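Whiteboard transcription, Tuesday session. T.W. wrote the structure tokens on the left side:
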């Protein structure tokens, strides 16, 4: 996620359920912390960056339609 994506998602969630937006931000922070501790736990995706690095992804806990992708 990039800052604009995060702002759009939280704005969308705030409109329907402000508590859900708070939970999303907390879950996103936890997911990023988990990745920082153990980046190898992210699932390898079937594509690479333009310079050939593998891309991994991890679903945001409690928000399985949202992922953090990283290299």
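and on the right, the sequence the group agreed on:
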């Amino acid at each position: 996620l990039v800052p604009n994506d995060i702002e759009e998602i939280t704005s969308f969630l705030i409109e329907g359920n402000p508590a859900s937006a708070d939970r999303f931000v907390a879950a996103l922070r936890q997911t990023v912390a988990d990745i920082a501790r153990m980046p190898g736990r992210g699932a390898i995706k079937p594509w690479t960056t333009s310079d050939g690095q593998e891309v991994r992804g991890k679903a945001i806990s409690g928000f399985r339609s949202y992922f953090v992708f990283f290299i």
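Someone added at the bottom: The mean pLDDT is 90.
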